Amino acid sequence: MKSKVLLMFLLTAILSLAMVSATANFTLSPASLNFINADNSKTFTLTSAVNTNYSFAFSTIPDKDGIAIPFNAIGNLAFIATIPQTITVTSAVDYNKLNIGATYHGVLTITEVGNLTNTNTLPITFIKTFCESGEKGDAVNGRLEITEVNIDNSDGDDTEWSPLDPISIDVKVENTGDDKLSDIIVELGLYNSKGKNIVNDLKDLDNEQIKLGAIREDDDDIATFDFKVPADFADETYTLVVKAYSDDTGEDEVCTSYSSDLSKDYYELIDGVRETDEENHIVVDNIKISPANPQCSEIVQVSAEVFNIGDEDYEDQVKVTLYNKELGINLEQIIRQDFDQGDSETVDFEFEIPANAAKKTYVLEFRTYYDYDTDDETYNLVSNDRFTQSFTVEGNCGVVPTVSSVKITAKLSSDTPEAIAGEQVIITAKLENTGTTTDLYTISVSGNTAWSSLSEIDPESVIIPAGESREVDIALVLDTEAEGDKEFTIKATKNGVITEQKVLLSITKQAATTGITGSAIIDNIKANGFIYAIVLINLILIIAIILVIRRMVSPKTSI
After folding, report:
1. What pLDDT was estimated at residue 140?
2. pTM for this predicted structure
């Protein structure tokens, strides 16, 4: 038993001696080197426990193009025990070849010559900051410090942004110098994974630069940036940066982009996350109403932006509806195009406030329909949310409006001069406002479903000034079996009053395809007799000429 304990003791002692011998007998200060914008050299001290020589080896640190950043170490490689020696590391780094927020790490390995186990490493990092010339400020020119950076996402995690999220960023800047600094500017930047600054893509951001003016010594001020995340915000990691500088002194003299409030000191990482729920992919935002507070009998114009904030593309078309039961509003607009991730489109609506509407606040409700099925002409997806915008009707309600009327006439469009069964026909309706006021009319049709289907009314609503007229195209797809005279009604609705005009449409059955018959040939000859006569005469003349030439060149027979 005693022999086993003795053996364990000896093994532990041997292992301890091996570890001691493998430990470097020199120290480095500082423990790492950080190169920041405009830095091309850094120094450190090496203190050796023995008189010896050391060698230096740099690891490869590639820039954004994959090209290695060059290094060099300058100093005395022969060291005297306990006497610190200063070593300068130089680098011809091009900071334009580095991306803000990217990681550029490497090490300097220092080894005793002739003793490979006596080694140590010095981490080296390259940092490109938002300040173009790096962190600048001193007792002469002044100093600025970013003491707080507060990021607020009212729709979710502060550092996880989805399309159209409302973001507010407060940046507190303090003058830590001894004198007042003038023309202080705080600037915001947002870099994507490719190193491009997309700050100008942020919606509703008034300016990426905010002027704070002068800040006295030991005083501070706050710049606030409010914006919405753009619709094409991708599923990737972004780099958020801020900087404060004096435009009076110059950014190359006084500038800071460092803040302990930022998780990475010089920047904050933002995770872009697109919407994954299909029923929330197509949304309506930025709804504008003009006039903002209309009166009764007044025409209202509404515009809104439609966005695809989801992680899927949609083909063919998207429908947007506008609804309010109290005001009798039930309108729709169709965006007839593919709607891919990040796409946006503006839709416009018009309606008239009824003369007998109550003076109060009303809510307009929007919904979106998408994932269109061309086979059955339906939409597979409808937005979960109803996107709303309120407005107030202010007055003039209950006043009987000036009498207005409309005259409707109709004719076949020149594009479809004949109504043929199984094909589309376009009827052009002319609406003439014979009243004394400008009016909005909504167009519809009825009485056609037994022999046709409505394809489109363009436009569905129209504003007509007094004494003027406008045209509306009504496209009907005729049934294949439709034939003869058919009647339908064109309706023009204004403020609940409907004007109707019946229209008679004569439909021709599709002609059957036939082969070539004798009667058809005779009919063709009769219809084109003159042309055939000319062709026949030319044939006779050609034959006669050939016979004469042949007779002239034929050899004569001697008797």
Report:
1. 86
2. 0.66
